[in-house]
Design brief:
- With 420 residues, this protein is α/β, with parallel strands linked by helices.
- Helices cover 18% and strands 14% of the residues.
- It contains 8 helices and 13 strands.
Length: 420
């Protein structure tokens, strides 16, 4: 969170959070919920900020609110690590400090058992008028071959959460983009990451590079520094230098929390600071703030300006999340207009498809041209629905006159993205 080059990284490449801590933005009054394998809330860095009212155990048969994981299994510390990244207590000389160290933290224990569509929907819609931010660091397996996303109930829960949660302002769903970089996984094929309702966050190294585990995709909105080199480290000492320090089971401190698992809770902590600064922000306002405040972490990625004049990268989204700039902008932010949707159904095109040679099809969409709000000032999301998406790739081209210039994006769904 404060990179002064102490581990050989690029000084200043951090969340820019210390200046706003000094202005008393600490996450106070905001509640974050970790959707994972539970939280060891007895940890001295977590106990004071734990909120049982924002917690539930969906895996146990006891129907209680205690999200304590099965601590006999060391693999069940994932949620506890995520919680520490958000709210670890400051200045107590234990492990470290969370981004929003005075926010309240809850947990939904949901990953330590059979995961069903119904269970996911219950987790995603657990107390949406009490919880402000949900942090999730899991999704389909990162094997470069799986294409999967939320089933009908979970999808409906996401939609209801942003529509009705936070008393109509919409809850914030923060999702880790995945760790399938070594298998050339593409996070576009992770339906949780590519959902309109989620804010997808990836990782960047302390040198502004793309880590070896990082997945590339157009669904990534921003990145946060979680460590990780361009090449996978070969020694434990080398590995330890570039990872996040956080909370573990049995009061332990973890020094090897790596991957995009840490990205979602770090970003959630940043958003908690933003909601403290302005509690009237909608879920879409938060996305706009992320986009307009992000900064370019390095020049070695394929950066370009999109049709709205914003810098964007297939690796880093709109750039490095900047908590300080987000908080400053949030304080006098004007809410974006209500979300509008228009739909276009292409005509049936019957043709023979070869498994050897690709078939190219052009579809021109003007679905917003004949309706009352046809004068578009911003285009936030595009969704493409097809029964065989895993066999397709798309070149999405925008040439709206209200934009600065035409923009092209390549969406590869030919392969994809367990715990991130």
């Amino acid at each position: 969170m404060n990179n002064i080059g102490q581990t050989g990284g690029q000084a200043g490449l951090d969340l820019n959070v210390e200046p706003i801590w000094k202005k008393n933005f600490t996450g106070s009054g905001v509640t974050v919920c970790i959707l994972d394998d539970g939280i060891d809330h007895t940890h001295p860095d977590l106990i004071d900020n734990f909120d049982v009212a924002a917690s539930i155990d969906l895996n146990g048969d006891d129907n209680d609110q205690d999200p304590m994981p099965d601590t006999s299994n060391p693999n069940n510390g994932h949620g506890t690590r995520c919680a520490g990244a958000v709210v670890a207590k400051a200045n107590n000389s234990v492990c470290g400090v969370g981004v929003a160290y005075k926010a309240k933290i809850g947990g939904v224990r949901m990953l330590d058992g059979t995961i069903t569509d119904l269970l996911e929907s219950k987790a995603l819609l657990f107390k949406p008028n009490y919880i402000n931010i949900y942090s999730a660091s899991w999704g389909p397996i990162d094997d470069g071959a799986t294409m999967e996303g939320p089933k009908p109930l979970a999808k409906a829960a996401l939609q209801a959460g942003v529509k009705k949660g936070r008393n109509g302002l919409g809850v914030i769903y923060v999702w880790a983009t995945g760790n399938g970089g070594l298998t050339s996984d593409d996070c576009n094929a992770d339906g949780y990451v590519s959902s309109v309702e989620t804010l997808a966050v990836g990782s960047v190294s302390n040198q502004g590079k793309m880590p070896y585990f990082m997945e590339q995709c157009t669904s990534t909105m921003a990145v946060v520094p979680t460590g990780g080199e361009k090449e996978k480290p070969t020694s434990k000492s080398e590995n330890r230098k570039i990872q996040v320090v956080t909370t573990g089971l049995h009061g332990q401190c973890i020094e090897n929390f790596e991957g995009t698992s840490g990205a979602a809770p770090l970003a959630s902590g940043c958003i908690a600071l933003v909601l403290q600064a302005n509690s009237h922000l909608t879920w879409r306002d938060v996305q706009h703030l992320v986009v307009h405040s992000a900064r370019i972490p390095s020049s070695d990625s394929n950066w370009f300006f999109n049709g709205a004049g914003l810098h964007v990268s297939h690796s880093f989204g709109f750039g490095l999340m900047d908590c300080g700039r987000m908080v400053e902008m949030a304080q006098d932010w004007k809410n974006v207009p209500p979300q509008r949707k228009c739909f276009y159904t292409s005509a049936d095109m019957k043709m023979q498809v070869s498994y050897v040679k690709p078939v190219k099809i052009q579809i021109f969409c003007n679905s917003c041209s004949n309706i009352a709000f046809s004068h578009l000032t911003r285009l936030e999301h595009v969704q493409i629905i097809h029964p065989n998406l895993s066999h397709l790739s798309f070149l999405l081209v925008s040439k709206l006159n209200c934009f600065f210039s035409g923009t092209s994006l390549f969406l590869n769904c030919l392969h994809s993205s367990s715990l991130h």
